Amino acid sequence: MERRGLLFVISGPAGAGKSMIAKKLVEKYPDVGLSVSCTTRAPRPGEIDGVHYHFVSEERFEELVQRGEFYEWAYVHQNRYGTLRRTVQEQLAQGHDLILEIDVQGCLQAMEQDSEVTGIFVCPPSRENIEKRLRGRGTEGEDALKIRLHNAAREVEQAYRYDYIIVHEDWDAVPDALDRAIEQAYAIITAMRLKTKHSMRFLNALSQSLKRE
Ligand code: 5GP
């Protein structure tokens, strides 16, 4: 049965593990795609243009904004990030289900402009856990940590706007926490695929054939 692809946005505070969940999910389930965003930040070692991001200049990004080419975009830590409208339209038109792993502002934009978008919020189980994960990244000084925690508080305040919440448990307490979160995210995708409205054509055809003399 041909149907349009479904769009999922996944977000959550820095350190909650949303990017790892999204990355591992599409590795395990190739029937779901992950959108490649545009960013003005410089590539990190090992990052490939067109694979991890489309790395663009400030000028180019601004040009794309002016031309209305972004489905959503936002400033994140002084850089700009955005999802191209074309990427979303092409994937959905081809019937591919697509995940956007984007920041909270971007998710809210997407959910506001399109009621068909499913929002998934990835939450840490506790303050202690997110502090541990942020420190574990090794890049956070005390001031940076305070800012991240403050941002996390603001983001968690927006969680009620999302359709689903996944609590990414502490790996020490729950060794298979990552697998659980991936399975929960895929369960959400599966449930959305099984919505009655996606089967109307099939149901009509089945009912017609059953009525045949
Ligand atoms: P990083 O620079 O570490 O790869 O990503 C930083 C943040 O930017 C993450 O929270 C990520 O979710 C967010 N991000 C990545 N791509 C996009 C995008 O296209 N739009 C928005 N709004 N946020 C994005």
Task: Give a summary of the structure in a few sentences.
With 213 residues, the chain is of the alpha/beta class. The protein is 44% helix and 20% strand.
Q: Can you describe what's shown?
A:
The protein is an alpha/beta fold and 213 residues long. It has a domain at 7-35 and 96-211: 3-Layer(aba) Sandwich (Rossmann fold), CATH 3.40.50. Helix content is 44%, strand content 20%. It is built from eight helices and nine strands. The strands form two sheets. Strands 2-7-1-8-9 form a five-stranded parallel β-sheet, sandwiched between helices. Strands 4-3-6-5 form a four-stranded mixed β-sheet. Helix 1 crosses helix 7 (177-193). It is globular. 30% of the residues are buried. Guanosine-5'-monophosphate is lined by residues 37, 41, 72-74, 76, 81-83, 101-103, 105-106.
Shape category:
globular
The CATH architecture classification of the domain at 7-35 and 96-211 is 3-Layer(aba) Sandwich
Question: What is the average of the pLDDT values?
Answer: 94
Please give the alpha-carbon distance between the first and last residues.
25 Å
**CATH superfamily of the domain at 7-35 and 96-211, please?**
P-loop containing nucleotide triphosphate hydrolases
Strand neighbour order, sheet with most strands: 2-7-1-8-9
Q: Profile the largest sheet.
A: 5 strands, parallel
- Compute the number of strand runs: 9
CATH class of the domain at 7-35 and 96-211: Alpha Beta
- Count of alpha/pi helices: 8
Helix content: 40-55%
- SSE ordering: EHEEEHEEHEHEHHEHH
Structural class: alpha/beta
List the ions, cofactors and other small molecules found in this model. guanosine-5'-monophosphate
Q: Please report which band the strand proportion falls in: under 5%, 5-15%, 15-25%, 25-35%, 35-45% or over 45%.
A: 15-25%
Please tell me how large the radius of gyration is. 19 Å
**What is the fold-level CATH name, i.e. the topology of the domain at 7-35 and 96-211?**
Rossmann fold
Low-confidence stretches: none
